[in-house]
Every structure is written in structure tokens, then in C-alpha cells.
Design brief:
By secondary structure, the chain is of the alpha+beta class. The chain has one domain. The chain is about 35% helix and about 20% strand. The chain contains 5 helices and 5 strands.
């Protein structure tokens, strides 16, 4: 499901989320429109937090709660009208990765810590591709999200 619902979330709508979810919901402004897919994305993150050690039977680490919190914050920060729903996957290192493979763009970013994000980008239309580690400067990530949203 793409785009925004066109409605804002009242404080009553935000109450069902517990723990990490409640903290994230409280950090959004009352007027902020969230994508229709936001509740499902938050549920996915919360589900992934419940995976046990060795969830893949190859010694994968449990998802780090701080990483999950920062990952969801970053997703909120880069979200803009028209952004498609990302795939949210666990990594064996206990991190979270967000992926978009649509509209001729392959974009993946892995949140490795509260200050380190690894981004991989490929635009199959223009041939532009790069991989970067980002810290607090999310501008390169926001720029490719803008490209993704603007492409039909």
C-alpha cells in the first residue's frame, strides 16, 4: 500500500502501542500524517524484536532494541508523502534493514548503531549506484527517497 491515508492520528489512536512503539508514536507531532503502512511497519519491527537468539539456526543475534528504536526513528524521519512501504528484514548481526525494490530503484539501508547507517542504492534507469555509510547526515538517503517517490 502506498502513500498517505490523508488523516492524522489522534492521541487516542496512538495509545495501543506499548514500549518502543509508544515512544515512537509520542515522538511524532499530532499533525504529522503517517503513511497507511506505518502501523504494519511498526508491528513488523515489534515482531522482529521478539525473534530469539539463533532465529535463523545459524547463530543469528537477537534484534537489538536500541537499533530497532533508531531504525524506526530514521524511517519516520525519511518518510514523505507517496513513499512506498519498505520491506523490513532482520540481519544476522542483530540489526534491521529496510528495502525498496520498485520503480527502477533498489534501495537498502541497514541501521547498525544509533549513529551508523549503511546504504546501498542503484537506479536501473540512470545507471547511478553507490554504497555509503552515513552518520547523522541523512541527506543522501532523503535524496534517493525523493527520487523514489517522484518516479512513476
Amino acid at each position: 500500500m502506498n502513500g498517505l491515508s490523508g488523516t492524522t492520528w489522534s492521541s487516542e489512536d496512538r495509545m495501543p502501542y506499548q514500549g518502543i512503539g509508544a515512544t515512537l508514536i509520542k515522538s511524532t507531532s499530532p499533525e504529522q500524517e503517517l503513511p497507511q503502512w506505518w502501523p504494519a511497519a511498526l508491528s513488523r519491527i515489534l515482531f522482529l524484536l521478539e525473534l530469539p537468539e539463533n532465529w535463523d539456526s545459524y547463530d543469528a543475534k537477537k534484534i537489538n532494541q536500541q537499533i530497532a528504536y533508531h531504525a524506526a526513528q530514521i524511517l519516520l524521519e525519511i518518510t514523505r508523502p507517496g513513499i512506498p512501504e519498505p520491506s523490513i528484514v532482520p540481519t544476522v548481526r542483530g540489526n534491521l534493514q529496510f528495502e525498496w525494490h520498485t520503480r527502477g530503484i533498489d534501495l537498502e539501508f541497514e541501521v547498525k548503531s544509533s549513529v551508523l547507517i549503511s546504504v546501498s542504492f542503484e537506479d536501473t534507469v540512470t545507471g547511478n549506484e553507490w554504497e555509503k555509510d552515513l552518520d547523522y547526515n541523512l541527506i543522501p538517503l532523503k535524496d534517493v527517497i525523493r527520487q523514489l517517490v517522484s518516479r512513476d
